[in-house]
Amino acid sequence: MTPMTPTQQAMPEISQVIEVPNKSKDQIFEDSKIWIAQSFKSANNVIQYADKSTGSIIGKGNIQYPCD
Known about the structure:
Blueprint: H1 25-39, H2 43-46, E1 47-51, E2 56-59
Antiparallel strand pairs: 1-2
């Protein structure tokens, strides 16, 4: 594994839409929050904004990329 090094260069934004059949918006929202809690040391420090009514979660953190 290559160690991470600090950089002044911002990474490009990465986004992908994934269809999740047979799950409601609320289930996807809750499952996403669980994934964040399991994938980062502190979900409270990662989640910057969460709105269940719109299904929006905005986070800020570091994760090895590409990831599963």
